[in-house]
Design brief:
With about 900 residues, the chain is mostly helical. It has four domains: about 1-50 and about 690-890, no CATH class; about 55-190, abc type-2 transporter like domain (abc type-2 transporter like fold, 3-Layer(aba) Sandwich), CATH 3.40.1710.10; about 225-275 and about 565-635, no CATH class; about 275-520, no CATH class. Helix content is about 80%, strand content about 5%. It has helices at about 1-20, 20-45, 75-85, 100-105, 120-125, 150-190, 190-205, 210-225, 225-240, 240-255, 260-265, 270-275, 275-380, 390-425, 430-460, 460-485, 485-515, 520-560, 565-635, 635-655, 660-665, 670-675, 695-715, 725-730, 735-765, 770-795, 795-815, 825-830, 835-850, 850-890, and strands at about 55-60, 65-70, 70-75, 90-95, 110-115, 140. A four-stranded mixed beta sheet has the order 4-1-5-6, sandwiched between helices. Strands 2-3 form a two-stranded antiparallel sheet. Strand 2 and strand 3 form a beta hairpin. The longest helix has about 110 residues, at about 275-380. It is a multi-pass membrane protein. This is YhgE/Pip domain-containing protein. InterPro entries: ABC2_TM, Phage_infect_YhgE_C, Phage_infect_YhgE_N, T7SS_ABC-Transporter.
Length: about 900
C-alpha cells in the first residue's frame, strides 16, 4: 500500500512540474496532437483514390479496315472508338496515328496506349471461314511514372477486350440461332413417332436379360424332352401297379383303426419309468449286500466265537461266585471307608478353593510388582554411592523372589493336573497353559538378570542399558500373561470337580448295596441257556451262507451290470410313447384320411391326365423343335441389332436431350444471343461493408499513429525521474519507474482520444462501432506506450532503436494496406508475433462490425503484451538502470548523442 501511495505522489509531482512550465505544457499538447496529423493526412489522401481515374490520360488509335460479311460492311475498330467516347472511366485520348501514340506513351504524356491493328475485323470474322485467327489489341504502358497507375490502366484495357468479345458473341450467336429455329419446328412435328420408336427399342433392350432367360428355358426344355418321354413311359407303367397301391391303402386304414388298442398296451412303459428310482435303489441294496457279504460272514463267525467265549465266562463266573460274594462284602466295607473320606473332603472343600484363590492372587501381585522391582534395580544402578557388589546383591534378591514364584507355579500346576486327571476332564487345560507360559517368562527374566549381573561386574555400560531395556520389556509382559488367568473360573471349576468326585463315591456305595441284593446264581443259569440257543441258531445259518452269497452275487451282476441299458431302454420307450407315437398317430390319421377321401379322385385324375399327355406329346415335341431352331440360329443377330440401336439412343440422350434441343432451337434468337454473350451476372454481397477507401485505411494509420506517438514522446521525454538529495532515499527505483510510466500512459491515452475522435468527428470516417473504436484505441495506446517506455527505460537509446525497428517491421509485416499473404515469407512468418498486427485487426473489427471471437483474441494478446512488459520493467529496472546509464554515458562521450 505504501508503494502505491508513493507512486501516486510522484505521478502528481510529474504533472505539477509540467503545468508549472509553459514550454512543457506546449510540448505535451504538441506531442499528443502531432501523431494524429500523420494519420489524418494519410487517411484523407487515400479517401477515394479511384474516384478520379477519368483524369488518367490513355491514348487510343485504330488502323482497322472495313470487311464484308453477308453483304454487310463491318468495322469493329470504329465501333470500339464510338463506345470509348461514351466511356468516362478513364481519360481516353483519341490520337491520329500510331507514331503519336507511341511517342506520347514513351514521353509520359500518356500513362498507356491502346492500338487496334488493320486486320482486327478480318481476324475477328475468320471463324466463319474455318481458318481462325484471333484478333489482337496492342496495349502499351509506361510503368515508371507511377506504381498504381499501370494497374488502373490495365483494368481499362481488360474492360475493352471484354466489351469487344461480348459484342462479337452476341452477333454471331444471333445469326446462328435464327437458322436453328427453322430446324427445331421440323423436328417438333415428328416428335411423337420418334419417341414411340425410341421407347420400344429401349424397352426391348432393357428386357433382353429376361428374354434370354425365357429362351434358355425353351432350349433346356427341348433338351429334356428325351427324359420327359422316359418319365412318361414310367408313369404309364405305374398305372399297372395301382391295384397293389389300393391294397396297401386298406392296410393303412386298418392300422389306424387299431391305434387306440396299441396305445393302451404301450402305456405300461410309463409305469416302468415312474419306478426307475425304486429299481435303481433295489440295485444299490443288492450291490451293497453283495459287497458286504464277506463282512456278514466274518461278523457271524465272530459272533459265534464271542458267544462261545461268553458261555465259557459265564460257567467260570458260576464256579467263582462264592469268592465274588466274599469280595463284594469287602468292597462294601471299602466303600464305607471311602465314603467317610469323601465326607471329610467335602468339609475341607472351602479351605482348598480358598487356598487356590490366595495362591493365584499372590502370583498376580508378584507379576504386577515386577515393574516396581525393575525400577528399583535401575535406581540402584544409577546410585553412584553403591558398590558393584551391592548392586549385584539387589539383583540377586529379585532373582530369589523369582525362584520362589517358579516353585509355587510348579506346585500349582501339579495340583491342577492331578485334580483334572481324577475326574477325567480338561477344565484346567487353559489355566495350566497360561501358568506354563508365565513360568517360561520368569525363566527368561531370570536369565536377563544374570546377564545384567555379568555386565555390572565387567563395567560395560552399553550392555547394562541393553539388559535393563530387555528386563523392562519382559516385566511388562509378565503382568499381561498372569492377568489372562481367570482366578474365579479356576476356583469354580475346582469346586465343581471335587463335588462331582464326592457324588461319584456316594453313587458307588449305593450300587454295591444294590448288587448284593441281586440273585447272581439264577441270572447266570438263565443267561447260559440263552447263549447256548443263540450259538445253535447261528451255526445253522452259517452252513447256508455260501449258497445265499452266490445267489446275491448273481442277482447283483444281472441287475446292476445292465442297469444303464435297462434305464435307457425304459426312458427311450417312454420318450417314443410321449413324443413320437402321437406324431405317428397323427400322420397315420392323415394317411388313412387321404386313402379314404382324396386318393380315389387323384387315382381317377392320374389315369385321365396320362391319357391326355400321351395324346398331345407329338405336337409338343414338334413345337419345341421349331422354337429351339429359331433361338439357336436367329436370336443372336436380333439381340445384337437391338443393343446397337439402344446404345445409339442412350449415347444421344447423354450428349443432348432431344426435347430440350427442340425447345432450345425454338427459343427467341435475340434473347438467347444476349445470354450467350453475357451468361452470368455478378451479385456482390458485402460482409462488414466500409463506405470508402479512407475509412478502410483508418485502422492501419490509427495504429501506426499510436506507435509513432509513443516512439516520438519517448525520444523527447526522459524515463529517469529527477529527485533531489533526500527525496531519492524516500522513493524506491520501482516507485519512480512506475510513476513516470503513468505519465507516459496519460500521454498515450491523450493521443488515442485525439486521433479517434478526430477520425470520427473531423474527417467523418465511417465507423460501425464508434464507442468500441475509442475503447480499442485506448487499449492499444496503453499497450504500445508501456512497451516503448519499458524498452527505453531499460536500454536507453538502444531501446529507442528497438522501438523504431519494431515500427519498420510493423509497417511491412502488419498487413495494414495489403493482405499479408501477398508479402514475402519473412513478413508472413513474423506477422502473428507483431503487437501491431493485433492492434490493426482490433480496430478493423470496430470499423466494419465486430466479430467477437476474433476481437477477444486480439484483446487478450494486447493485454498480455502490456502486462508482460509492465512486469518485466518492474522486475529488471532496478538491476539494469546502472547498465543503461553506462551505455548512455558512453554514447554522450561521442558528443553526437545525448
Amino acid at each position: 500500500m505504501k508503494h502505491i501511495k508513493n507512486t501516486g505522489k510522484l505521478f502528481i509531482l510529474d504533472w505539477k512540474r509540467i503545468f508549472k512550465n509553459p514550454i512543457a505544457i506546449f510540448l505535451v499538447l504538441a506531442l499528443m496532437f502531432i501523431p494524429s496529423l500523420y494519420a489524418w493526412f494519410n487517411i484523407k489522401a487515400l479517401w477515394d483514390p479511384y474516384a478520379n481515374t477519368s483524369q488518367l490520360p490513355i491514348a487510343v488509335y485504330s488502323d482497322d479496315r472495313t470487311e464484308k460479311f453477308q453483304d454487310k460492311s463491318i468495322n469493329i475498330g470504329d465501333e470500339v472508338l464510338k463506345n470509348l467516347k461514351k466511356n468516362k472511366q478513364l481519360g481516353w485520348k483519341f490520337v491520329d496515328s500510331k507514331q503519336e501514340l507511341d511517342k506520347g506513351v514513351k514521353s509520359g504524356k500518356y500513362y498507356a496506349g491502346i492500338y487496334l491493328p488493320e486486320d482486327f475485323s478480318k481476324n475477328l470474322l475468320s471463324f466463319t471461314t474455318g481458318d481462325i485467327h484471333k484478333p489482337k489489341i496492342v496495349y502499351s504502358i509506361n510503368e515508371k511514372i507511377n506504381a498504381i497507375a499501370p494497374k488502373i490502366t490495365s483494368k481499362g484495357a481488360t474492360s475493352l477486350q471484354s466489351q469487344i468479345s461480348e459484342e462479337f458473341i452476341k452477333t454471331a450467336s444471333s445469326t446462328l440461332l435464327k437458322t436453328f429455329n427453322d430446324i427445331g419446328y421440323d423436328i417438333d412435328k415428328n416428335m411423337v413417332s420418334i419417341q414411340k420408336i425410341k421407347s420400344i427399342i429401349l424397352s426391348t433392350n432393357d428386357n433382353l436379360g429376361t428374354i434370354d432367360q425365357y429362351t434358355q428355358q425353351v432350349v433346356d426344355l427341348h433338351n429334356k424332352m428325351p427324359d420327359l418321354k422316359a418319365k412318361l413311359d414310367k408313369a404309364n407303367d405305374f398305372i399297372d401297379y395301382l391295384p397293389e397301391v389300393d391294397a396297401l391303402g386298406q392296410k393303412v386304414v386298418q392300422l389306424d383303426d387299431s391305434m387306440p388298442m396299441i396305445k393302451n398296451q404301450l402305456s405300461i412303459i410309463m409305469t416302468l419309468q415312474e419306478k426307475i428310482p425304486e429299481i435303481q435303489n433295489a440295485g444299490k441294496q443288492i450291490a451293497m449286500i453283495d459287497n458286504d457279504f464277506a463282512s456278514v460272514e466274518q461278523t457271524m463267525n465272530e459272533g459265534i466265537q464271542e458267544a462261545k467265549q461268553g458261555l465259557t465266562i459265564i460257567q467260570q463266573v458260576q464256579t467263582a461266585l462264592p469268592d465274588i460274594r466274599k469280595l463284594g462284602n469287602q468292597a462294601n466295607e471299602l466303600a464305607s471307608t471311602t465314603l467317610d473320606g469323601a465326607t471329610q473332603l467335602q468339609n475341607a472343600l472351602p479351605s482348598i478353593t480358598n487356598s487356590l484363590d490366595i495362591t493365584l492372587k499372590a502370583l498376580q501381585n508378584f507379576a504386577h510388582s515386577t515393574s516396581s522391582y525393575v525400577k528399583a534395580i535401575r535406581a540402584a544402578l544409577s546410585n553412584n554411592h553403591l558398590s558393584p557388589e551391592e548392586k549385584i546383591a539387589a539383583i540377586q534378591n529379585f532373582q530369589d523372589n523369582i525362584q520362589q514364584q517358579e516353585n509355587i507355579i510348579k506346585n500349582l500346576i501339579t495340583f491342577l493336573e492331578n485334580a483334572q486327571a481324577s475326574t477325567g476332564n480338561h477344565n484346567f487345560d487353559s489355566a495350566i497353559q497360561k501358568l506354563n507360559a508365565y513360568s517360561e517368562a520368569l525363566i527368561k527374566l531370570d536369565g536377563r538378570l544374570e546377564t545384567l549381573k555379568t555386565a555390572i561386574a565387567n563395567g560395560e555400560a552399553i550392555d547394562i542399558d541393553q539388559a535393563l531395556s530387555e528386563i523392562e520389556t519382559l516385566a511388562n509382559n509378565l503382568s499381561a500373561l498372569i492377568d489372562n488367568i481367570d482366578v474365579n473360573a479356576v476356583s469354580t471349576s475346582l469346586n465343581k470337580i471335587l463335588t462331582q468326585l464326592i457324588a461319584t463315591i456316594k453313587t458307588a456305595q449305593d450300587l454295591l448295596t444294590k448288587a448284593q441284593a441281586i440273585d447272581f446264581e439264577s441270572l447266570l443259569n438263565s443267561t447260559g441257556k440263552t447263549v447256548s440257543n443263540a450259538i445253535a441258531l447261528l451255526e445253522k445259518y452259517q452252513k447256508e451262507l455260501p449258497a445265499i452269497k452266490q445267489e446275491v452275487h448273481n442277482a447283483n451282476l444281472m441287475l446292476n451290470g445292465n442297469m444303464a441299458t435297462i434305464i435307457n431302454a425304459i426312458n427311450k420307450g417312454a420318450s417314443l410313447y410321449q413324443n413320437e407315437l402321437p406324431l405317428v398317430e397323427q400322420k397315420l390319421d392323415k394317411a388313412a384320411d387321404f386313402i379314404k377321401n382324396d386318393y380315389p379322385a387323384i387315382r381317377k385324375e392320374l389315369t385321365e391326365t396320362l391319357g391326355t399327355i400321351n395324346e398331345k406329346m407329338p405336337d409338343l415335341e414338334k413345337a419345341l423343335d421349331q422354337a429351339n431352331d429359331l433361338i439357336i440360329n436367329d436370336w443372336p443377330s436380333i439381340k445384337t441389332g437391338i443393343r446397337k440401336a439402344a446404345d445409339a439412343i442412350h449415347k444421344g440422350e447423354k450428349e443432348v436431350n432431344l426435347g430440350e434441343i427442340v425447345k432450345l432451337l425454338k427459343l427467341d434468337a435475340i434473347k438467347e444471343s444476349d445470354f450467350l454473350a453475357q451468361p452470368v451476372e455478378l451479385q456482390e454481397n458485402a460482409i462488414y461493408p466500409i463506405a470508402n477507401n479512407g475509412s478502410a485505411s483508418t485502422p492501419f494509420y490509427t495504429a501506426l499513429c499510436l506507435w509513432v506517438g509513443a516512439v516520438l514522446f519517448s525520444s523527447v521525454a526522459v524515463t529517469e525521474f529527477y529527485l533531489k538529495g533526500r527525496d531519492k532515499k524516500l522513493y524506491s527505483k520501482r516507485e519512480q519507474f512506475a510513476a513516470r510510466m503513468l505519465t507516459f500512459i496519460v500521454m498515450g491515452i491523450g493521443q488515442a482520444l485525439i486521433v479517434t475522435l478526430g477520425n470520427y468527428f473531423g474527417l467523418g470516417v465511417d465507423v460501425h462501432n464508434p464507442v468500441y473504436s475509442v475503447l480499442f484505441a485506448l487499449l492499444i495506446a496503453l499497450s504500445f506506450m508501456i512497451m516503448v517506455y519499458v524498452l527505453v527505460a531499460l536500454f536507453g537509446n538502444i531501446g529507442k532503436g528497438i522501438a523504431i525497428i519494431i515500427l519498420v517491421l510493423s509497417i511491412s509485416g502488419g498487413g495494414g494496406n495489403y493482405p499479408i499473404q501477398v508479402s514475402g515469407k519473412f513478413f508472413q512468418a513474423i506477422n502473428p508475433y507483431l503487437p501491431f498486427t493485433h492492434a490493426v485487426n482490433l480496430l478493423r473489427e470496430s470499423a466494419g462490425g465486430i466479430y467477437w471471437p476474433n476481437a477477444w483474441l486480439d484483446i487478450i494478446i494486447l493485454v498480455a503484451v502490456g502486462i508482460g512488459f509492465l512486469v518485466a520493467g518492474l522486475v529488471f529496472f532496478p538491476h539494469l538502470e546502472k547498465t543503461s546509464k553506462k551505455i548512455s554515458e558512453m554514447a554522450q562521450k561521442s558528443h553526437i548523442f545525448h
